[in-house]
Amino acid sequence: MNNIRTIKGGGNLKGKIKVPGDKSISHRALIIGSIAQGETTIEGFLHSEDPLSTADCLRKLGVNIPKIKKDEPFTILGLGLDGLKEPKEILNCGNSGTTMRLLMGLLAGQDGKNFILTGDGSLNERPMRRVGKPLSLMGGKIFGRECGNKAPISISGNKLKGCVLGTPVASAQVKSAILLAGLKASGNTSVIEPVSSRDHTERMLKAFGADISIRGEFGRNVVIKSGTDLIGQRVLIPGDISSASFWMIAASIVPNSEVLIENIGLNPTRTGILNVMDSMGCNYEVLDKSTIAGEPIGSIKVKTANNLRSFTIEGDVLPKLIDEIPILTVAACFCDGVSEIKDAQELRVKETDRLKVMTRQLRKFGAEISEREDGLIINGQSKFNAAEVDSETDHRVSMSLAIASLLAKGNSKIIRANASNVSYPTFWEDLAKLTN
């Protein structure tokens, strides 16, 4: 495993690329296809560690998923809502919080079957009660370390009852777990969020034939009614806007750059980064818009912009760009004035404490950045000097530091660089392609 990468500062980015398939949609296509009737064919799947962990767990539950090859469509044979088997071994979710949280919802209503979920050292420290608690209110029997908050998690499948659940934080993973459990619960299951989070699960369940409706102001209330079988579909997965964001920001801040990123998902619950790029004064355009399987897609062309303005990120936009905060922190270092990130305490319980890690690593380049409890304050117009930095095992940190290195004077080294494999296995190839 080549774990140290050297990045040369200076130069520019030119060219066009396709980023890998959307991570959120890849997980959901596998899970929903597994409980549908008949065949589901998936194209554009993200061939990276996290979605492959989901595939591995579903195979242990009896789902026929072929060996998934990079850039090749594949077909899975669904087992229907009642067909999952009790596994003979522990389900290992690897580093993937999405896998663990969505499977908790999927398995809670598998009456009479028992399951144990575990993960790697990082995942087994992440909070799980936020999913376990609402599921237990539906009748789920879910246990774990620290009063059910940490994996390993044990699930005793049970008959669930539909109910109305409010979630304290806007989390697509919590909402999705409840909706998946709702497929097996009696009557209606209703989720009400403080702010609407990404809605890939709702869109896909609807495409597979679930009885699901979006209500309330700003679509914050989602209701699913059980009793309807899901029917297998063809799913085309667009490029992941969270992966595209590294190139969108890089092309904006690295002098004399122009990059076209083709076929990326433009789901409105995910495009918060475009709002921030607007307030910064970035130079970009969206081309070739269309809709595939209920998901809007398009291509984005970005050119370098001068005199970028500082920005504040807070409140309702956070769920729409939570994964882009690390790369936006890099962007803030090169804007005029002081940028602020608020209401982002969720980042403290990601793969790492991303607020702490980004502060610690960017300071090595010479960034003026300070932590607050729920965010960051970043002074712009930094002059970066080459440094030796560390991803601290976090994929989004690794890629953000790579982009930061392009703006540093001299050659920088990134330790544990291949953390990027979690969501973007071809990142370093694409970086080489755009910088040559």
From TrEMBL:
Keywords: Amino-acid biosynthesis, Aromatic amino acid biosynthesis, Cytoplasm, Transferase
Residues annotated as the enzyme's active site: D323
Major location category of this protein: cytoplasm
Annotated GO CC locations: cytoplasm
Enolpyruvate transferase domain sequence ranges: 8-431
Domain of life (superkingdom): Bacteria
Pfam families attached to this UniProt entry: EPSP_synthase (PF00275)
Pathway(s) where this gene product acts: Metabolic intermediate biosynthesis; chorismate biosynthesis; chorismate from D-erythrose 4-phosphate and phosphoenolpyruvate: step 6/7
Keyword flag tRNA-binding: no
Catalytic activity, reaction form: 3-phosphoshikimate + phosphoenolpyruvate = 5-O-(1-carboxyvinyl)-3-phosphoshikimate + phosphate
GO MF annotation, one: 3-phosphoshikimate 1-carboxyvinyltransferase activity
Binding site for 3-phosphoshikimate: K23, S24, R28, S171, Q173, D323, K350
NCBIfam families noted in UniProt: aroA (TIGR01356)
Quaternary structure and partners: Monomer.
Protein name as annotated: 3-phosphoshikimate 1-carboxyvinyltransferase
